Amino acid sequence: MRHKFAGLLVLVALAASMGTMGISAAAAGAAETGEATVTTESASGVSRTVATLNALVNPNGSMVSECEFEYGTSPTALSGSAPCALLPGSGENDVTVSAPLEGLKESETYFFRIVATNLFGTAVGAVKSFMTLPSEPKGHTEGASLITRTSAQFNADINPDGATVETCEFEYGKTPSYELGFLPCAVLPGAGEKLVPVYTLASGLSENTKYYYRVVAKNQFGTFFSGPESFTSFPYRPKAVTQGVEPIAEESATLNAAVNPDDAAITSCEFEYGTSLAFGSHAACTSLPPGEGENAEPAAASLTGLSPSTNYYYRIVAANVWGSSFGQAKRFTTLPAKPKVQSKSASEITATSAQFNATVNPEDSLVTSCEFEWGPSQAYGSLVACASLPGSGGSAVEVSAAVAGLSENTTYDYRIVATNAFGAGFGGNQQFKTQVAGLPPTVSGISPKSGPETGATLVTIKGTNFTGVEKVEFGSNEANNVTFKATTEITAESPAGSGSVSVTVVTPGGTSAPTKKAKFKYKKVKAAKPRPRQAKR
Predict the structure, then answer these.
(1) I need a labelling partner for 387 at 20 to 30 A (CA). Which of 111, 144, 355, 376 fits?
(2) What is the DSSP code (8-state) at residue 335?
(3) What pTM does this model have?
């Protein structure tokens, strides 16, 4: 019905466009041109979920205004449509047209046809069909690893190709007939679309014997058989057994193993280790297992520079003249970290009090205790708790504690100590000296009493109690180059300033009171007058 209606509209448009031409001329034109000629061609590029529909369209001299493919899973219900990638124009020759389809179902039969409309009507092509592809797994065999005299690890890579792998196993034998049977993959490769490593461990092999194996993987669309891989079991290589780790700390551990030389002198002994089964690092055994006997001998290696709270994998590797043996890979975890602490300089120091300062990184474990050890020497002897605990985060937090009752003019030592569930962190030693207690200073006079606003006037200040001068201020600005002459006299360079200001002296005993005798007046600096120009002769 849609195509008949489209044809009717075309005829109406044709009649309207003829203008002053006669009906006989319009009929003659239709006879020369007419509807497009269409031919449905075979689909191409068919895979599991995509395909390209193809056809030939001859416009027969009339511009093709619509070009599309109708498609669906039933030849009588083509419910989908896809526009031609390009319109075929208005020529008089066959033009190839196509439309890409995506998101199709796997292993499904689809039907399609071409539909093209020009000024004279709509042409519909014959229905054709295609079937999307099912997909069995893909992959390849990899070389064997962990080969010993009696065992080996078979390896392969499998791409499930989007369908869950239901069965994965290795066939193996002493011939390519794989007469010894099947061993299941340690882990199924899933249902993704990328290569996934699979493996199995074969035991009970014969020494110095050639073996063949391949991987077999099955999903709902079929079974994949890889090509063969071969290896030869080792002759009389050492027996290497990976053992436990003891002791384990935050950043160190000692790896242990047993090595049986198996009647051939051990030529090398080391541990492979790292944060994955790729290992990547090596540590030599403390000493080579002695002799050429058939008894297991201990082997060990100490690791340092590890990261706290981290999983590490390791295995023993020992070699004799016949080759290397690899122990089973094992795993250990370093201990979580104690708090990381740093003692900082004391502040707010007076003759009898001070504030201790530090930073504490809880290393992601709640700090249950935070305190400062302090005393007149590095034996400390006294404790004061941090004003607040630093929590359980993973970054440094500032902590402090105020202490009072100190002796004046005395040197003290202190350090931070913070504890979480995994131990205590001790900061480095910090030292400070309390101030000298005494009467506040007084200023009885200054000379000179004025200077330029730019500063740098050397001023002599006289008064009393100038012991331990901390600073001299001209108004609110601190003076430069303060020099102690005596407890009754100091000198200082005036800072830049303006107006009339009080000169005050600050010592541990306090700050001198402003007086009229301690007033300093800043004078404006007059700009130099330009010299008159001499008349030219």
Answers:
(1) 376
(2) P
(3) 0.36
